[in-house]
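Thread: Modeling a multi-component assembly for a lab meeting

Hi all, long-time lurker, first post. My supervisor asked me to bring a structural picture of a complex we are working on to next week's group meeting, and I have zero experience with this. I have the sequence lines for every component (693 residues in total). Could someone generate the structure of the whole assembly? Inputs are pasted exactly as I received them:
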Amino acid sequence: MISFAQTLFYLFSAIIIFAALRVVTVRNPIHAALYLVLTFFTTAALWILLEAEFLAITLVLVYVGAVMVLFLFVIMMLDIDLAVMREGFVRSLPVAGLVALVMLAIMVMVVGPQHFGMALYPAVTPHAADYSNTRELGRLLYTVYLYPFEIAAVILLVAIVAAIALTLRQRKDSRYQQVELQVAVERNDRLRIVSMPAEEPRP
Amino acid sequence: MPQYRRADRIHQMLENYLPVLIFIAVGLVFGAFMVVLGMILSPSRPDDEKLSRYECGFEAFAGARSEFDVRFYLVAILFIIFDLEIAFLFPWATVLRELGLFGLLSMTLFLAILVVGFIYEWKKGALQWE
Amino acid sequence: MVESILSLLTLLGFPDWLQSVIIIMLKIVVILIPLLTAVAYFTLAERKVIAYMHVRIGPNRVGPRGLLQPIADAVKLMFKEIIIPHGADKALFLFAPVLSMAPALAAWAVIPFEAEMVLAQVDASLLYILALTSMGVYGVIIAGWASNSKYALLGAMRSAAQIVSYEIAMGFALVGVLMAAGSINLGEIVMGQQGGFWHWYWLPLFPLFVIYFISGVAETNRAPFDVAEGESEIVAGFHVDYSGMAFAVFFLAEYANMILVAMLAALMFLGGWLSPFEGIGIFADSWLAAPSILWLLVKTSLFMFLYLWFRATFPRYRYDQIMRLGWKVFIPITIVWILVIGVAIVAEVGPWFAAGVAHG
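Re: Modeling a multi-component assembly
Sure thing. I ran the full set together rather than chain by chain. Output:
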């Protein structure tokens, strides 16, 4: 008899594997991206089963909510031609197959079954009622792991600079609203009070 | 005065999140139900003009899916970076009281580095829309 | 009441897990029915309020004073043909409204209506809501793309870029709330505001409060930030090709999101279900000083009214102005204010940040 949690685990795992396969097999790139979203979402559900609450929700927030939105933006705008994409399929099949095999071998070596299993890990102790995953993470991240944390800031800074350097193409002829100038305008810049003699009444 | 008691929480995270999972499923089913209901109840009399895509009554003169201003990508990339920043700020905000001055300084440094990037994008005009 | 249902289910011989699932389903129904009723009547309230602001009467034909109007609208939409345009991606076209509806409803799972009255006892409830709100953008993007129309796609891209921009400002504003409460849980955030009107977070977090609500208006694509629906340029934005029930679902999701933003504002900045008369001598011991769900509903209605008031008052922003407001005004202000609160917490300033308030 398997427990309810195990049922959920197998259900989510099945969805993940199915969705991940669809990502690479489906023809339409938009559909592929949406299957990837489904994969991330169910992965988050698995992480919650592992009691990694904060990371699970952050996975949804960052990957589903932000990264995949960028993916969709790009795919929608590129208007990918499927016929052109499939042209070189047969020609590059051997090389691609080789690369895939090498990657598979590496993955088995690094995350293969010999590293996992009930025997290798002690049973997880359930947390107390007032356990807060987020708070525990905060206690460690900003004290013990301070250097990696600050390095993350630098990496993000590099990402900002790189993104702007790569994508920003300014047109010379575009015109902007300069709000600062509008706000800074004073009465004397726009308005001139002239004193004129009052008009003489007609005779 | 009823206190909000943390001890009342059920012990396992699974039990806490089960209602969330069910609620998401209910949301999906409810939305799908409404659309299906509409499809069943409503008439379906398609004709060529009705199904043509909307273009202010003109004949469509170009494919709908066209290349786009690169600025939208830039917004999306910057959004990812700032979203990550927020994800880093959340656990920090909950434990700031315990960490005290040290925590404040570590986050100030983090924000300072990123504010440099923010100033850079501002000066470069990446936030400028014409 | 839950116990009596449980004992009935045990009598009928349901297994344990099924029992809890049934109880949860019942609770969901108890949340959804008032919510959907509120959504329906919010549309009527919108038309009425704006009508009176325009010195008109508004809908008054269906039922007494037009009170049955939302039901008439629903029935009408139900029997309208759902047109699927040529070249549209049929499956995604029909899936997009579902995708915008599900997060708008599922976010309500973690909203506490009173101390103890919450469906899912999730610790990181605020983060969960932020994550689900960010899912809402998918409905918009997919609808725009699946319609195979230039107008829809343009509208979708505009809305999506706007939604993500304001999500940043909103996220930073939420960080301020977390700092003040020292917790990521909505219930604890409300309990951190105990002590009457002047202890609520709207005062120490005033800039964030204003930014949160304005970002909320922009996130839900409401006036004055409704460029997606700029009637004069791109007609109705991402849902231009939708009709009948498929359109109605988008509409419902938008209004459910508006109510959600209003309720979150009430919970995080106006003390949720706490009474404004708490701690005032004359009201002590009377029901007016007691916390109750009534206060939460009153505060939520206040924000919902603000939505309508905004729509009747402000002219639409131009797109470059929207982006400027989000990136160049709100984000700098929130970052500065986060640092201000940080210093205030470390220095333990005032009644809000004193050491005793922490929930540790």
